Amino acid sequence: MTRPEISLEFFPPKNIEGTFRLWDSVQVLAPLAPRFVSVTYGAGGTTRDLTRDVVATIHKHSGLRTAAHLTCVDATKEETLQVARDFAKVGVTDIVALRGDPPKGSNGFVPHPEGFANSVELIEALAETGDFTIRVGAYPDVHPEAATAKADIDWLKRKLDAGASEALTQFFFEAETFFRFRDACAKAGIDQYITPGILPIENWKGARRFAEGCGTKIPQWVVDAFETAERDGRSDLLATAICTELCDELIQGGVDKLHFYTLNRPELTRDVCFALGVTPELKLENVA
Ligand code: FAD
Predict the structure, then answer these.
(1) Spacing of C-alpha 156 from chain mean position
(2) Model pTM greater than 0.70?
(3) C-alpha to C-alpha distances, 224 to 172, 197, 206, 221, 267, nearest whole angstrom
(4) Which single residue of 132, 143, 259, 276 could bond 139 by disulfide (Cβ 3.0 to 4.6 Å)?
(5) Ligand 1 centroid vs 146 CA: distance in angstroms?
(6) Is 259 within 8 Å of 287 (Cβ atoms)?
(7) For ligand 1, is residue 98 a contact (CB within 6 Å)?
């Protein structure tokens, strides 16, 4: 079996315990030699400084290639570009450029009066600087705001053509969903790499809520399997099996890059990676 390249997504910690958990996750997973790790930008732009501090720390202390997520929410163009320049100042020039979701409780995305109106404008502005490697989000189950699946892919093409080199997808449950999406992207003339986003399910109820919020369709067999596994206290075993099988099918279908949503819980991602033959390569150096 082809050994896939992996990338890993983390989120900024909310408190001291979360800080330890994040660093523990980095330490557990860094030896798997990810091609990059990324750190999210809080919904509504709420973690601006924290995301910068976290990417700076991971980059400095782990030596891993590190990407920062950046959204257009609730900020002027100048403020958003200043955040990007601050990432670059700490050595982080990989950006996952997103429109972002509106703050909780508000109705739909409303651009800041002096802000970027959408993700394409942000990508164009970042690309114009020539300073960044830009990745974007993609939606195999179709973004909830898309008029049609085709319109969603046309918009993805516009984002990539604006200066991005790769798309990272939202998570999904069946390999077929990804293959259909990848084929439709190719048909639309997209030739940048589409990397599947993989969610190892640590917490079924949380994953279900998350899926419902972002438009990921949950097959009935997954619902039934988790209900039985929860009753029997075997959710972890099921989560590892489902996730490994999904990744395996993707690899059999020609995928050689996987992006894991770790949720700062490293064990399941590590176990799935081990099952896929992704085993430790690196030793963390300079760990504080
Ligand atoms: P876009 O792709 O720009 O828009 C979403 C959809 O709306 C499009 O797919 C398209 O169908 C439609 N659309 C939007 N504008 C237009 C237009 N002008 N014309 C036609 N169609 C349009 N959120 C965070 O807050 N922080 C994060 O760190 C974060 N990280 C993420 C990482 C990944 C890999 C992914 C997939 C998502 C992430 N998100 C994050 C969630 C993301 O912010 C939401 O999904 C948001 O609703 C869309 O952002 P986007 O940049 O993908 O939007």
Answers:
(1) 15
(2) yes
(3) 17, 23, 16, 5, 24
(4) 143
(5) 10
(6) no
(7) yes
